[in-house]
Amino acid sequence: MEVPIKKVKTSLKGRKCKYSHCKHILSIYNHEDYCHVHLGLLAYDHKPKAMKAS
Ligand SMILES: [Zn+2]
Fold first, then answer.
1. In terms of residue numbers, what domain contains 39?
2. Among 11, 49, 51, 52, which residue's beta carbon has the most beta carbons within 10 A?
C-alpha cells in the first residue's frame, strides 16, 4: 500500500528578501516578500508613533 504524500504549501526555493541590498534568503515556509527582519521593520513603520507611555 502506498503512503499518501502530504503536500505542504511552500514557496519557491532561494527567494531573496525584496528589501534593497538585503541578501537574506527567504525560507520556503515564508510566503512573504521580505525576510523576518524587514517584515518586522515594515510592520513597525506602519504603526502610528503616538504610543508614548505617559
Ligand atoms: Zn530583509
1. 14-46
2. 11
